[in-house]
Amino acid sequence: MYYDPIKNIFAGIIRKFPTFRIIFYKLLDIMFLRSWYVRRELRSLRRILGGNEISIYDAGTGYGQYSYFMSKNLQPNSIYAIDVKEKWVNDCKDFFKRKNIKKIDFAIEDLTEIKHVNRFDLIVSVDVMEHIVDDVKVFQNFYKALKPGGFLLINTPSIYGGSDVHDESEESFIGEHAREGYSFDDLESKLTPLGFSVFRSRYTYGFWGDLSWRLGIKYPMQMLNISKLFFIALPVYYIAALPFTFLMMYIDYSGTNKLGAGVNYIVRK
């Protein structure tokens, strides 16, 4: 309701000014705590998978942020990146072609209908599953698509405030969600019957991480929803807020959260 229109604004900006795209990726990596967690896990999984070339499925690539990161940091690999939004897929195709980044393909796919079989060593699903009603069907498709021994990395909001809904009277700040989120038990109950084994699980955006998200992301976006004139005031706001935001993010990232608004969940076939 508030979050998604802002995402579309940024998608439009990097479509018009593609040279800004790498800077935009860097900003996402810095400002979003989930990216800190995801990139750490991707590096770890790449080491576990060994030195041979691996095949990666970016299942919901969005802006192409993680495909770009993996193309640079998880070599050697080949990447197949998909999304349901045609404009975003075409933007990524144009950008990666212009940058001459090899061994990456983009396509429009619906995860409930994919037919890949024993194709990928690693599937990456970042903030996707909360948007899909028939999640079990997608998990079944992921299992078929993975090679034996392959990993599935899921990053998603949790049921503990992950869609910014903390009680029944609250309205979500983040639109387009089919569910509020997942718990460890939810994911285990849906994934292990399919044949997956749990490799590692973490709650992200605990007390400090949630505060950092509000200070660094939610409140500025709420201001922008009131008026685009707040773009002018954003630099001043961030000069004051960023030191506290980054400190809280680091505390969350360095510690262990008993619960949190996010889930980082890895299973293996």
Please identify the structural class as seen in this structure.
alpha/beta
CATH superfamily: Vaccinia Virus protein VP39
CATH architecture: 3-Layer(aba) Sandwich
Whole-number total of structural domains:
1
Assign the CATH topology.
Answer: Rossmann fold
Mean pLDDT: 89
User: Cα distance, first to last residue?
Assistant: 36 Å
Largest sheet, in brief, is:
7 strands, mixed
CATH class: Alpha Beta
- State the shape: globular
Name the helicity range. 40-55%
> Hey, roughly how much beta strand do the residues contain?
15-25%
Oligomer designation: single chain
Number of E-type strands: 7
Radius of gyration: 18 Å
Q: What are the low-pLDDT stretches, counting only 5+ consecutive residues below 50?
A: 165-173
| Helix/strand order, N-terminal first | HHHEHEHEEHEHEHHE
Biggest sheet strand order reads 3-2-1-4-5-7-6
Query: Number of DSSP helices?
Result: 9
Description of the molecule:
The chain is α/β, with parallel strands linked by helices. The chain has a single domain, classed as Rossmann fold (3-Layer(aba) Sandwich), CATH 3.40.50. The protein has nine helices and seven strands. The protein has helices spanning 3-16, 21-31, 33-48, 65-73, 86-98, 135-145, 184-191, 207-226, 230-254, and strands spanning 54-59, 77-83, 104-108, 120-126, 146-157, 197-204, 262-268. A seven-stranded mixed β-sheet has the order 3-2-1-4-5-7-6, sandwiched between helices. Helix 2 (21-31) crosses helix 3 and helix 8 (207-226) runs antiparallel to helix 9. Residues 165-173 have low confidence and may be disordered.
